[in-house]
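Lab meeting notes turned into a lecture example. A postdoc, R.K., suggested we walk through two folding results consecutively so the class can see how the record format repeats. The first protein's sequence and structure tokens come next.
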Amino acid sequence: MWESDGGLLARVDKTKMPRHVAIIMDGNGRWANCRGLLRNAGHVAGVKTLKNILKTAVNLKLEALTVYAFSTENWKRPHTEVDFLMHLFSDYLEREKQEMHENNVRIKFLGRTEDFAPALQKLMRESIELMKNNTGVKFNVAADYGGQDEIIRAAQKLAYRVKAGELLPEDISTQLFEDELDTFGQPPVDLLIRTGGELRVSNFLLWQAAYAEFWFTDTNWPEFTPEEFIDALVDFGKRSRRFGTLNN
């Protein structure tokens, strides 16, 4: 297993830890601009941060970690940046998949993955196959993902089932709808973290984060440390989660 800082992990009360943490990894470009670097340098630095946070999640035995890697809107960025991100994504998977496997990580990709280049799709399938029997952290990479798009896709699947006579409209329940989402079989998001100083969810896990606690930081993603990740988890453990009810 990846080495862990026992003292750091000991700060977290395991009885009050979230099951599912989602992260909007924002601020790569701002981090680079502040240093007079190209935006791509920020993306490279951000990959190193992701590895450190995943390591921490593994050592904490977190049930699920979802990261926002590439949104449906990100295709609108300059072609040079999109091409670089696709190359970086491929390089990350190729380089890290074996180590993730050895650390019992189970990877899954959320979104319209069929829109990626065939070579990248093949690498994604290989990564899923390699880790499919692992029982550790469920590591969800949201790529070409949008929360509204996911909800529409789920609704369309149910509509086709109604049209085919498999079920009636009144049969559609919360559970049936969740079964059609990209995160099928996983717990809802308990804690959503956003780095980079922005205070919005940016079309990320809109259904799954319905009752999530939010934690925002001005820290840009490349500078986000395991220590600050732990700070978020500790803060989560102090919150009262009522889900619409009153405190006892």
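The second example is placed directly after the first for contrast:
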Amino acid sequence: MRKDTSTNTLNEKMLNESCGMAYSLKIIGGRWKPAILCRLSHQKMRYSDLKNSIEGISERMLVAQLRELELDLIIKRTVYAVVPPKVEYELTELGETMRPMLQSISEWGNMHRSTVNPETDLIKSDFMV
């Protein structure tokens, strides 16, 4: 945790307010958010299916990342009143507008990876539908 008045916090706030790219990367950045967004860009998913599809993510981290994406209005959480409880996640209308950007980032990453490390020639895009 950083103080709200720390130089680091103030610099980050200024950068996010003045640079759309920095703000976008703040929303989608991190280790797990791209994997979550990739899966939800293809289909609505239940929590357990999402958890099982992302190798290595802890329940605590998945919950935290889903909450952040929900607070940023990128994903929607739907709770069904059934026993056992059923929860589904999907992209919101705003989240859907990210598809072209996510597709471009994925394509660039695959191109860069194959250029820098040709042994891992995995050109298939994660976000192709």
